[in-house]
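User: For my dataset I need records formatted as: sequence, then structure tokens, nothing else. Please produce one.
Assistant:
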Amino acid sequence: QVQLVESGGGSVQPGGSLRLSCTASGNIRSLNNMGWYRQAPGKQRQLVATITSDGSTNYADSVKGRFTISRDNAKNTVYLQMNSLTPEDTAVYYCNADIRERIWSSFNTYWGQGTQVTVSS
């Protein structure tokens, strides 16, 4: 059984920074692509950033140049460094990961429970 747990959320003023982390635990044979998504109240969940197993990254236009996604494979952890935060970044942030639990299994996508990020004056 695999679980993803996010941490690092909180409240910050505009222009501030936060660093989110998400750690996968459980029976992990292979950890492939990982990513961050966010969902603001009344809106659909949107992609923020993704990172492949070899470090290739992709960002939503709204966060490009401000957010940085990274990973530590030894810790089964993905990070999201968020700088120059604005109120429009307020949302619940979710991580996800493609994980294979057995050598004979296919990859499955797992989601964390989310961490709240609030940007306000």
